[in-house]
From TrEMBL:
InterPro entries: Anhydro_N_Ac-Mur_kinase, ATPase_NBD
Reactions listed under catalytic activity: 1,6-anhydro-N-acetyl-beta-muramate + ATP + H2O = N-acetyl-D-muramate 6-phosphate + ADP + H(+)
Pfam family, one: AnmK
Species per Swiss-Prot/TrEMBL record: Leptothrix cholodnii (strain ATCC 51168 / LMG 8142 / SP-6) (Leptothrix discophora (strain SP-6))
Protein's recorded name: Anhydro-N-acetylmuramic acid kinase
Length: 365
């Protein structure tokens, strides 16, 4: 999995037992992107000269990195490739325009699954989102069905939030289909501000954010973004939450603000948009599990807990799956669903006409 934060690849090796029951993660590798490759992927998020050529080459380069991650996982687990049933490979989202323009829209994940299959000699399942779009859905978020399968509890109402580049929420209520939608920015704005002012890829632990003062005018302007008020189904990406979007807000509402105060405000924005969605539901949620890199941002976790006083906010680690493994495990699970010819999309989440088998198989030999 390589997600919208553009931080790198998370790979997991997952096991199912003889009865095809999910058994969990047995190995995890995180391989960061080199700065120049990250810059190439960032440049592909908007149109530019000869972008088809650049996207094709970036897809090849990404598949080579995925293959390295697979090799490292096999080494870690001392397992031959022949024992692995399939690799689920999401690709790198460079555009997400569901339902736009012609009623179907598109979502574009650059990748080269054929090259990955050639390199690994393992079946590769890729292109997980397009079938849901073809069925009238948004193609995202897809993880709620995985959250339901792995974290669902018949006795409790749970919420999960994945705070990657973008944040997406899942709601699990006993006896009901999972619900879920994209909330808004996760780390994407905080990351770009940290790179710009500190030259670092992210704000470790949220310590820089914690050193600043929240700017109420800016925060309210950011919270007024119309996407936040939309009803589900809804999904978004860097197509909306990009540097120019932030700069336009700063020019209007915080022209000469201290950088640390802007960071504090961006952290509060992520926390309040998530908490706001949960509070508007007026539902007694027993706990909120946080996954994705945002779970490692102590200041963000503190603000989430403060905003949701009555709901315990926990890292997914406390329920058996470390936050940086959850999304990658979800795509292993989706690949497994594909192999079993089981539908894995949830129409209540994506808005599609019905559940569909997701992905496409590139045989490993
Ligand atoms: N120790 C840390 N302190 C603060 N933030 C962190 C830490 N570790 C990771 N992060 C944040 O988490 C991000 C990566 O999260 P993750 O890998 O879940 O994102 P992603 O999978 O790319 O995104 P998405 O879920 O949107 O597809 C980093 O860019 C950074 O902002
Ligand atoms: C189009 C796309 O890549 N969307 C991602 C992104 O990152 C988070 C959020 O926006 C979510 O909609 C989705 O990822 C997760 C894994 C999903 O599909 O559930």
């Amino acid at each position: 999995m390589s997600g919208t934060s553009l931080d790198g690849v998370d790979g997991v090796l997952c096991r199912w037992d003889e009865s095809d029951r999910w058994h969990g993660v047995v190995a995890h590798v995180h391989q960061p992107f080199e700065a120049d490759f990250q810059a190439q992927l960032l440049a592909l998020q908007a149109s530019g000269p000869d972008e088809l050529h650049r996207a094709a080459l970036a897809g090849n380069a990404l598949a080579r990195r995925y293959a390295e991650v697979v090799e490292r996982l096999l080494q870690q687990a001392a397992m031959p490739a022949s024992q692995v049933r399939a690799v689920g490979a999401h690709g790198q989202t460079v555009r997400h325009q569901p339902l736009a323009f012609d009623g179907v829209g598109y979502t574009s994940q650059i990748n080269n699954p054929a090259l990955l299959a050639e390199r690994c000699g393992i079946d590769v399942i890729a292109d997980f989102r397009s079938r849901d779009l073809a069925a009238g859905g948004q193609g995202a978020p897809l993880v709620p069905t995985f959250h339901h399968a792995v974290f669902g509890d018949p006795n409790r109402t749970l919420a999960l939030v994945n705070i990657g580049g973008i944040s997406n929420l899942t709601l699990l209520q006993a006896g009901l289909a999972p619900r879920g939608w994209d909330v808004g920015p996760g780390n994407v704005l905080m990351d770009l501000w940290t790179i710009r002012h500190l030259g670092r890829t992210y704000d470790e632990g949220g310590r820089w954010a914690a050193s600043g003062q929240v700017l109420p005018g800016l925060l309210n302007a950011l919270l007024a973004e119309p996407f936040l008020a939309l009803s589900p189904p809804k999904s978004t990406g860097r197509d909306l939450f990009h540097a120019s979007w932030l700069d336009a807000h700063l020019a209007r509402s915080a022209r000469s603000a201290e950088p640390a105060d802007v960071q504090a405000t961006l952290c509060a924005y992520t926390a309040q948009s998530i908490a706001g969605d949960l509070l508007r539901l007026q539902l007694q949620v027993d706990e909120l599990l946080v996954c994705g890199g945002g779970a490692l941002n102590g200041e963000l976790m503190r603000q989430l807990q403060a905003a949701l006083a009555r709901t315990p906010v926990l890292s997914s680690d406390e329920r058996g799956l470390p936050p940086l493994q959850v999304e990658a495990a979800a795509f292993a699970w989706l690949a497994h669903q594909h192999l079993r010819r089981q539908a894995a999309s949830e129409p209540a989440v994506t808005g599609a006409r019905g559940p569909r088998i997701l992905g496409c198989c590139y045989p490993g030999y």
